[in-house]
Design brief:
By secondary structure, this protein is an alpha/beta fold. It has helices spanning 2-40, 44-50, 66-78, 96-101, 121-130, 161-173, 206-218, 353-368, 376-387, 398-417, 425-435, and strands at 54-59, 82-85, 109-111, 138-142, 145-149, 181-185, 223-226, 232-235, 238-239, 249-250, 257-259, 265-269, 286-290, 295-301, 305-312, 317-324. It contains 11 helices and 16 strands. The protein has a 7-stranded mixed β-sheet, covered by helices on one side. The chain has a 7-stranded mixed β-sheet with strand order 4-5-6-7-12-8-13, with helices on one face. The chain has a two-stranded antiparallel sheet with strand order 9-10. α1 (2-40) crosses α2. The N and C termini lie far apart (96 Å).
């Protein structure tokens, strides 16, 4: 028995020793992995941290063609957590062909509504119902990224429901410490390079620019993603220019890398597959552009860095830019400008105070030249009547009656000389109507259906080039 007990005790000791050695070995291995990850930035821990970022893909103007199918394959190969559609999907009377194309990532999609998506009420409702949307404009949080989707087919002017929603949404999210990035999506662009598209909406919207770019500046928007003008264009970081709105202020001239930039980067990604609009020049605020390759914008977000690439459907990276933010953009509560929807009817005449007083004096002198000379007592009576002009006039007092007539003549003279200072209401109405943008969606009804556009105007998806957006 003693030999058996001794053997059992030895076995226990050996087992415990092996167990302790395993613990020590695990600790050594763990420490080695941590040091490797920190020192060389390529260990398992650093890879796990990198994998915690958010990957988002965005593109608009799709169609149901072999080109749009290549775009779908491009997105599938990147396996993003979120896909942002920027408007104009099937280019048909129903969305069915496009719904079939995007089945693989349908549950990951959020959409903006484009002009080809509101051809009929039935078509619009098909898109809204499919993506469980009650309105064309909305917002949502995706981890530390906030996405605000605007509707360029609805009214957007100051005081509209959409304007109030956008302003309130940006104001609230700018105060949220958990949100590190703010993206705005819409279909029609605010800024664009010169191009061969014949539609006025391809020139960039002045009312959108003057109404919303100051808000984007004020509340720290990072990216504005658009489509409609069939090409890829990406701006430098730009801020609204109060003195010259068509020429935004470029806050960094570096073509690819931006550290704590002021303003926003605007990108048009209308390269889903339908066709192209030719570019006829390059705007000064545009960092890069192209009108020959379909593809997507792939964005990877971490807490302090955005890494974005335009990847063609052939697999090449045609644009690459980064944004690094060590601090959240400050919120500027003071507006940079007063948004203007239409031009004023006219410039009011500026009246010099001295000239006005001089003219009044001349008018009075001219009137008094025809009056008979009076003695000192008469002048004294007139002065007294000026002080007490609010009192009733004695019908028998000829001096006071004559003074009243003189005052009446003076007033009529002054009024007559000032009638050119104001524009007539008719001129205001006429000017406002003539200055309203052709692309103003206020001509559509309340749900954004353009009843003046017929299906015959839908683009041929196989056409290589089209003058229409």
């Amino acid at each position: 028995m003693e030999a058996e007990d001794l053997s059992w005790m030895r076995t226990v000791k050996v087992t415990r020793l092996c167990y302790n050695m395993r613990i020590i070995a695990c600790l050594i291995l763990t420490i080695t992995m941590i040091i490797s990850g920190i020192t060389f930035n390529k260990g398992p821990f650093s890879q796990a941290f990198a994998a915690s970022g958010i990957k988002i893909a965005a593109v608009g103007n799709w169609g149901c063609t072999s080109n749009s199918q290549a775009t779908v394959n491009n997105i599938n190969s990147k396996n993003p957590e979120l896909v942002l559609g920027l408007g104009d999907y099937s280019y048909e009377s129903t969305p069915d062909c496009w719904f079939n194309e995007i089945k693989a990532f349908d549950s990951k999609m959020k959409i903006s509504i484009g002009n080809h998506d509101v051809m009929t009420k039935k078509l619009l409702n098909s898109y809204l119902n499919h993506f469980s949307l009650s309105k064309q404009y909305y917002s949502f949080d995706f981890q530390n990224v906030h996405v605000l989707t605007m509707a360029t087919e609805l009214e957007w002017e100051v005081g509209s429901k959409q304007y109030k929603f956008v302003k309130n949404d940006l104001e609230q999210v700018s105060k949220d410490p958990n949100i590190k990035w703010i993206i705005v999506t819409m279909h029609k662009p605010i800024y664009t390079s010169p191009n061969g598209c014949s539609a006025s909406s391809c020139e960039g919207s002045k009312t959108l620019r003057d109404t919303y770019h100051p808000l984007f500046d004020n509340y720290g928007v990072d990216l504005v993603l658009e489509a409609h003008m069939h090409s890829y264009q990406r701006s430098y970081p730009i801020k609204y220019n109060v003195d010259n709105p068509p020429k935004p202020i470029i806050t960094s001239s570096d073509k690819n890398n931006y550290n704590n930039p002021s303003g926003e980067i605007f990108a048009i990604i209308a390269t889903g597959g339908i066709n192209f609009h030719s570019l006829a020049g390059k705007a000064p605020f545009t960092a890069t552009q192209q009108d020959s390759k379909f593809g997507i914008l792939e964005m990877q977000f971490s807490n302090n860095k955005l890494d974005a690439k335009f990847i063609s459907n052939a697999g090449s990276a045609m644009d690459h830019f980064t944004v690094t933010k060590t601090t959240k953009k400050p919120t500027t509560l003071t507006p940079t400008s007063t948004p203007t929807i239409t031009k004023s009817a006219g410039t009011p005449k500026v009246v010099d105070k001295k000239s006005e007083d001089s003219q009044k004096l001349k008018n009075t002198t001219k009137l008094n030249e025809n009056q008979p000379a009076t003695d000192k007592s008469t002048k004294k009576a007139k002065n007294t009547s000026n002080i007490n002009e609010t009192k009733s006039i004695d019908s028998k007092d000829k001096m006071k009656t004559e003074k009243t007539k003189t005052q009446t003549k003076n007033q009529n003279s002054v009024l007559s000389s000032g009638t050119n200072l104001l524009q007539s209401p008719e001129e205001n109405i006429k000017s406002s109507a003539s200055d309203t943008e052709m692309s103003n969606p206020s001509k559509s009804n309340e749900i954004g259906i353009n009843n003046n556009i017929h299906n015959s105007q839908i683009l041929d998806p196989f056409a290589p080039l089209s003058p229409f957006p």
